[in-house]
Amino acid sequence: MAGAIQDFSQFDISKEEIDKLVAEVVRYVLFKTHQNSGCPIKREELVQLVTKNYSQRALPAHVINAAKEKLSNAFGYELRELLRCRPSSATQGRSTQQTGVAEAKSYVLISQLPAEVYKKYVEDENSAHLSGFTFVVISIVHLAGGKIPEGFLFSIMIWFHVLSLHKSYYASVVDILWRHLKRMGLCETDASHPVFGNAKQALETLVQQRYLQKDKVNGPEGNTLFYELAERALDGPVSEKMKEYISEVLFRDDSHFVILML
């Protein structure tokens, strides 16, 4: 982190003050991530930590960059920056004057450990099911075109029926994914699952974690609430892992292989 610290000479701040600011940001990120179940941390929160006692305009960016190095070198985490996605309905018909508006930034922690090492030494078995639930749900939304009505979790079997009328490839894939949810013990009619709790609240958690976002669309039958993929699900590493997960499920599920070949 020596290179990052040298850059602070322009701010007329001592090394001790720099170390304190960086440590404060690192501590805040670690505790906030744990406290809020991995929900993204807004950049403005980190900026406020730095600027509460210092007024230098460019200082927050330098402190955050130094904190990134510290998190990577000392803790094995990448502090990954995300740009908040707008709901698809909000992006349609946006005027050119809006294009200059800065998108809100946030950060999430991603382990840099190899997957097998993380699973063996770090992953909490008591919460591993939540990761599985997340990837099943975002995979379903992805295969639906990135957007699906709010009631999809509770009426998904009806949706399967509609898709199956077309004998589509995706109908078979989504059917497999839903059966994996059932293997976890989660059914479309569950109001209170012993592990996941309320299924609708579990979806709301994915919204807070920015895997999904809600979009209200006006239609001939009134307002319809949709779930669509948010920036965290669309981010490179998660998106690639999701596609690998879908492929893994397909090739592992021999019972549907024949259907997929039709």
Automatic annotation (TrEMBL):
SMART domains: MAGE (SM01373)
Residue ranges constituting the MAGE domain according to the UniProt record: 25-242
One term under GO cellular component: nucleus
Gene3D superfamilies reported in the protein's UniProt record: MAGE homology domain, winged helix WH1 motif, MAGE homology domain, winged helix WH2 motif
Superkingdom classification of source: Eukaryota
Name of the protein in question: MAGE domain-containing protein
